[in-house]
Amino acid sequence: MRKPCCDKQGINKGAWSKQEDQKLVDYIRIHGEGCWRSLPKAAGLHRCGKSCRLRWINYLRPDIKRGNFAQDEEELIIKLHALLGNRWSLIAGRLPGRTDNEVKNYWNSHLKRKLVEMGIDPNNHKLNQYPVPPQPHHAATTSMNVACKLRVSSTDNDGVSDAASYLEDETHAAVSNLDLDLTIAFPSSPIKINEENQKKTAPIARNDHEEQYTVPTLLLFR
DNA sequence: AAACCCTGCAACCGCCGGCAT
DNA sequence: TATGCCGGCGGTTGCAGGGTT
Protein backbone atom coordinates (compact mmCIF):
# COMPACT_ATOMS: atom_id res chain seq x y z
CA MET A 1 0.00 0.00 0.00
CA ARG A 2 1.43 3.29 -1.09
CA LYS A 3 1.50 6.17 1.32
CA PRO A 4 -0.09 9.41 0.18
CA CYS A 5 2.39 11.99 -1.03
CA CYS A 6 1.73 14.08 2.04
CA ASP A 7 -0.30 14.26 5.18
CA LYS A 8 -3.70 15.44 4.05
CA GLN A 9 -4.54 16.97 7.38
CA GLY A 10 -3.82 20.65 7.72
CA ILE A 11 -2.93 20.92 4.07
CA ASN A 12 -4.35 23.77 2.00
CA LYS A 13 -5.89 22.93 -1.32
CA GLY A 14 -7.26 24.93 -4.19
CA ALA A 15 -6.21 28.30 -5.46
CA TRP A 16 -3.00 29.80 -4.16
CA SER A 17 -3.06 33.10 -2.32
CA LYS A 18 -0.62 35.94 -3.00
CA GLN A 19 1.03 35.30 0.35
CA GLU A 20 1.59 31.65 -0.44
CA ASP A 21 3.02 32.53 -3.84
CA GLN A 22 5.36 35.01 -2.22
CA LYS A 23 6.55 32.49 0.35
CA LEU A 24 7.26 29.93 -2.33
CA VAL A 25 9.05 32.38 -4.59
CA ASP A 26 11.11 33.76 -1.72
CA TYR A 27 12.11 30.31 -0.55
CA ILE A 28 13.15 29.08 -3.98
CA ARG A 29 14.99 32.31 -4.69
CA ILE A 30 17.14 31.67 -1.65
CA HIS A 31 17.43 27.90 -1.58
CA GLY A 32 16.73 26.96 -5.15
CA GLU A 33 14.55 24.11 -6.36
CA GLY A 34 15.18 21.05 -4.34
CA CYS A 35 13.46 18.48 -2.22
CA TRP A 36 9.81 19.24 -2.85
CA ARG A 37 8.66 17.00 -0.05
CA SER A 38 10.41 19.00 2.62
CA LEU A 39 10.01 22.38 0.95
CA PRO A 40 6.53 23.26 2.25
CA LYS A 41 7.54 22.88 5.85
CA ALA A 42 10.80 24.74 5.34
CA ALA A 43 9.04 27.53 3.49
CA GLY A 44 6.22 27.76 6.01
CA LEU A 45 3.57 26.63 3.57
CA HIS A 46 0.62 24.43 4.42
CA ARG A 47 0.74 22.75 1.07
CA CYS A 48 1.84 19.39 -0.19
CA GLY A 49 5.17 19.25 -1.99
CA LYS A 50 3.60 18.27 -5.24
CA SER A 51 1.34 21.26 -5.12
CA CYS A 52 4.33 23.54 -4.55
CA ARG A 53 6.21 22.01 -7.43
CA LEU A 54 3.24 22.41 -9.74
CA ARG A 55 2.65 25.99 -8.70
CA TRP A 56 6.28 26.86 -9.26
CA ILE A 57 6.67 25.08 -12.57
CA ASN A 58 3.37 26.13 -14.08
CA TYR A 59 2.97 29.62 -12.77
CA LEU A 60 5.68 31.21 -10.67
CA ARG A 61 8.85 30.35 -12.53
CA PRO A 62 10.39 33.58 -13.80
CA ASP A 63 11.09 32.28 -17.30
CA ILE A 64 7.49 31.43 -18.06
CA LYS A 65 6.08 33.02 -21.15
CA ARG A 66 2.47 33.91 -20.58
CA GLY A 67 -0.20 34.98 -23.00
CA ASN A 68 -1.47 33.76 -26.33
CA PHE A 69 0.37 31.20 -28.37
CA ALA A 70 1.93 32.54 -31.54
CA GLN A 71 1.18 31.02 -34.91
CA ASP A 72 4.57 29.34 -35.09
CA GLU A 73 4.10 27.91 -31.62
CA GLU A 74 0.75 26.47 -32.66
CA GLU A 75 2.29 24.89 -35.70
CA LEU A 76 5.13 23.46 -33.69
CA ILE A 77 2.75 21.93 -31.16
CA ILE A 78 0.78 20.28 -33.92
CA LYS A 79 3.92 18.94 -35.53
CA LEU A 80 5.32 17.67 -32.28
CA HIS A 81 2.02 16.12 -31.29
CA ALA A 82 1.97 14.26 -34.57
CA LEU A 83 5.42 12.97 -33.70
CA LEU A 84 5.13 12.40 -29.99
CA GLY A 85 1.47 12.04 -29.13
CA ASN A 86 0.33 13.27 -25.74
CA ARG A 87 3.82 13.62 -24.36
CA TRP A 88 3.28 17.14 -23.21
CA SER A 89 6.46 17.56 -21.27
CA LEU A 90 8.51 16.67 -24.32
CA ILE A 91 6.46 18.98 -26.48
CA ALA A 92 6.72 21.79 -23.95
CA GLY A 93 10.45 21.21 -23.83
CA ARG A 94 10.63 22.42 -27.41
CA LEU A 95 8.66 25.55 -26.66
CA PRO A 96 10.76 27.92 -24.58
CA GLY A 97 8.82 29.41 -21.71
CA ARG A 98 5.82 27.15 -22.11
CA THR A 99 4.84 24.50 -19.60
CA ASP A 100 3.46 21.05 -20.23
CA ASN A 101 0.23 22.01 -18.49
CA GLU A 102 -0.17 25.06 -20.65
CA VAL A 103 0.52 23.16 -23.85
CA LYS A 104 -1.85 20.41 -22.80
CA ASN A 105 -4.60 22.89 -21.98
CA TYR A 106 -4.06 24.77 -25.22
CA TRP A 107 -4.20 21.58 -27.20
CA ASN A 108 -7.39 20.41 -25.52
CA SER A 109 -9.19 23.73 -25.70
CA HIS A 110 -8.00 25.17 -29.01
CA LEU A 111 -5.91 23.04 -31.29
CA LYS A 112 -7.91 19.85 -30.99
CA ARG A 113 -11.05 21.63 -32.08
CA LYS A 114 -9.22 23.48 -34.80
CA LEU A 115 -7.99 20.23 -36.31
CA VAL A 116 -11.42 18.66 -36.07
CA GLU A 117 -12.92 21.63 -37.88
CA MET A 118 -10.35 21.12 -40.58
CA GLY A 119 -11.35 17.50 -40.94
CA ILE A 120 -8.26 16.15 -39.28
CA ASP A 121 -8.40 13.56 -36.57
CA PRO A 122 -6.48 15.12 -33.67
CA ASN A 123 -5.59 11.71 -32.30
CA ASN A 124 -3.73 10.38 -35.29
CA HIS A 125 -3.41 13.49 -37.47
CA LYS A 126 -5.04 11.75 -40.36
CA LEU A 127 -7.46 13.47 -42.64
CA ASN A 128 -11.06 12.43 -42.28
CA GLN A 129 -12.07 13.85 -45.63
CA TYR A 130 -12.85 12.19 -48.90
CA PRO A 131 -10.64 12.67 -51.85
CA VAL A 132 -11.92 15.50 -54.01
CA PRO A 133 -10.47 16.99 -57.19
CA PRO A 134 -7.08 18.62 -56.72
CA GLN A 135 -6.95 22.29 -55.83
CA PRO A 136 -4.06 24.64 -56.35
CA HIS A 137 -4.04 25.73 -52.73
CA HIS A 138 -5.13 23.54 -49.90
CA ALA A 139 -7.35 25.27 -47.40
CA ALA A 140 -5.50 23.64 -44.58
CA THR A 141 -2.11 24.71 -45.79
CA THR A 142 -3.11 28.33 -45.82
CA SER A 143 -4.73 28.36 -42.44
CA MET A 144 -2.69 26.02 -40.34
CA ASN A 145 0.18 24.47 -42.27
CA VAL A 146 -0.80 21.14 -40.89
CA ALA A 147 1.89 18.60 -40.36
CA CYS A 148 1.54 16.23 -43.20
CA LYS A 149 5.06 15.74 -44.34
CA LEU A 150 7.52 15.52 -41.52
CA ARG A 151 11.21 15.15 -41.94
CA VAL A 152 12.84 14.40 -38.66
CA SER A 153 15.91 12.85 -40.07
CA SER A 154 16.76 11.47 -43.42
CA THR A 155 15.83 7.94 -42.50
CA ASP A 156 14.02 7.40 -39.27
CA ASN A 157 10.50 8.67 -39.09
CA ASP A 158 8.55 5.51 -38.80
CA GLY A 159 6.68 6.22 -35.64
CA VAL A 160 6.04 8.09 -32.50
CA SER A 161 8.33 6.11 -30.29
CA ASP A 162 11.35 6.56 -32.50
CA ALA A 163 10.75 10.24 -32.81
CA ALA A 164 10.23 10.53 -29.09
CA SER A 165 13.40 8.73 -28.25
CA TYR A 166 15.20 10.87 -30.73
CA LEU A 167 13.98 13.99 -29.04
CA GLU A 168 14.60 12.60 -25.61
CA ASP A 169 18.17 11.81 -26.42
CA GLU A 170 20.21 14.60 -24.95
CA THR A 171 22.87 14.13 -27.55
CA HIS A 172 20.37 15.47 -30.01
CA ALA A 173 19.32 18.33 -27.79
CA ALA A 174 20.81 20.80 -30.18
CA VAL A 175 18.48 19.65 -32.90
CA SER A 176 15.67 21.85 -31.76
CA ASN A 177 15.19 23.26 -35.20
CA LEU A 178 13.90 20.07 -36.72
CA ASP A 179 13.42 20.32 -40.39
CA LEU A 180 9.72 19.74 -40.42
CA ASP A 181 8.22 20.37 -43.79
CA LEU A 182 4.65 21.39 -43.23
CA THR A 183 3.21 21.34 -46.65
CA ILE A 184 0.39 18.98 -47.36
CA ALA A 185 1.67 16.37 -49.74
CA PHE A 186 -0.65 13.77 -51.13
CA PRO A 187 1.32 11.51 -53.36
CA SER A 188 -1.46 10.48 -55.68
CA SER A 189 -4.79 12.13 -55.06
CA PRO A 190 -4.61 15.46 -53.37
CA ILE A 191 -7.75 16.39 -51.55
CA LYS A 192 -9.33 19.59 -50.50
CA ILE A 193 -10.72 20.34 -47.15
CA ASN A 194 -13.83 22.18 -48.06
CA GLU A 195 -15.77 23.61 -45.20
CA GLU A 196 -19.00 23.29 -47.10
CA ASN A 197 -18.34 19.66 -47.81
CA GLN A 198 -17.40 19.18 -44.21
CA LYS A 199 -20.75 20.50 -43.06
CA LYS A 200 -22.65 18.41 -45.58
CA THR A 201 -20.75 15.26 -44.83
CA ALA A 202 -22.30 13.80 -41.73
CA PRO A 203 -20.19 11.30 -39.81
CA ILE A 204 -22.69 8.53 -40.45
CA ALA A 205 -22.57 9.12 -44.16
CA ARG A 206 -18.80 9.01 -43.98
CA ASN A 207 -18.87 5.70 -42.26
CA ASP A 208 -20.93 4.31 -45.08
CA HIS A 209 -18.07 5.01 -47.43
CA GLU A 210 -15.16 4.13 -45.29
CA GLU A 211 -14.78 0.84 -47.05
CA GLN A 212 -14.74 2.47 -50.43
CA TYR A 213 -12.24 5.22 -49.88
CA THR A 214 -8.75 4.95 -48.71
CA VAL A 215 -8.42 7.70 -46.17
CA PRO A 216 -5.21 9.55 -46.87
CA THR A 217 -2.57 9.02 -44.28
CA LEU A 218 0.02 11.54 -43.31
CA LEU A 219 3.34 10.65 -44.78
CA LEU A 220 4.81 10.27 -41.34
CA PHE A 221 2.64 7.27 -40.61
CA ARG A 222 2.76 5.55 -43.93
C1' DA B 1 -31.79 41.02 -14.34
C1' DA B 2 -31.50 36.28 -13.67
C1' DA B 3 -30.60 31.73 -15.00
C1' DC B 4 -28.20 28.79 -17.68
C1' DC B 5 -24.45 27.25 -20.63
C1' DC B 6 -19.82 27.14 -22.36
C1' DT B 7 -14.97 27.78 -22.25
C1' DG B 8 -10.40 28.17 -20.49
C1' DC B 9 -7.27 27.34 -17.09
C1' DA B 10 -5.32 26.25 -12.56
C1' DA B 11 -4.89 22.58 -9.65
C1' DC B 12 -5.44 17.83 -8.09
C1' DC B 13 -4.98 12.78 -8.45
C1' DG B 14 -3.05 8.54 -9.42
C1' DC B 15 0.37 6.08 -11.84
C1' DC B 16 5.03 5.22 -13.35
C1' DG B 17 10.04 5.08 -13.56
C1' DG B 18 14.45 6.03 -11.47
C1' DC B 19 17.19 5.68 -7.63
C1' DA B 20 18.85 4.36 -3.05
C1' DT B 21 19.02 0.98 0.35
C1' DT C 1 16.27 -8.89 -6.02
C1' DA C 2 12.83 -6.53 -3.40
C1' DT C 3 11.10 -2.55 -1.38
C1' DG C 4 10.18 2.21 -0.48
C1' DC C 5 10.75 7.06 -1.59
C1' DC C 6 10.52 10.78 -4.62
C1' DG C 7 9.92 13.52 -8.72
C1' DG C 8 7.66 13.80 -12.95
C1' DC C 9 3.93 13.04 -16.07
C1' DG C 10 -0.68 12.81 -18.20
C1' DG C 11 -5.59 12.64 -17.36
C1' DT C 12 -9.19 14.73 -15.12
C1' DT C 13 -11.80 17.91 -12.32
C1' DG C 14 -13.62 22.18 -10.49
C1' DC C 15 -14.39 26.80 -10.78
C1' DA C 16 -14.45 31.57 -12.41
C1' DG C 17 -15.77 34.49 -15.92
C1' DG C 18 -17.92 35.56 -20.16
C1' DG C 19 -21.65 34.80 -23.36
C1' DT C 20 -26.35 33.58 -24.46
C1' DT C 21 -31.18 32.92 -23.71
UniProtKB/TrEMBL annotation:
Cellular localisation: Nucleus
Matching InterPro entries: Homeodomain-like_sf, Myb_dom, Myb_TF_plants, SANT/Myb
Record-annotated HTH myb-type domain positions: 8-60, 61-115
Record-annotated Myb-like domain positions: 8-60, 61-111
Gene3D superfamilies: Homeodomain-like
Pfam families found in the cross-reference section: Myb_DNA-binding
Biological process annotations from GO: regulation of primary metabolic process; response to other organism
GO molecular function: transcription cis-regulatory region binding
GO cellular component terms, A-Z: nucleus
Swiss-Prot/TrEMBL keywords: DNA-binding, Nucleus, Repeat, Transcription, Transcription regulation
Subunit comment: Can form complexes with MYC2, MYC3 or MYC4.
Name of the featured protein: Myb domain protein 6
Organism: Hibiscus trionum (Flower of an hour)
Lineage: Eukaryota, Viridiplantae, Streptophyta, Embryophyta, Tracheophyta
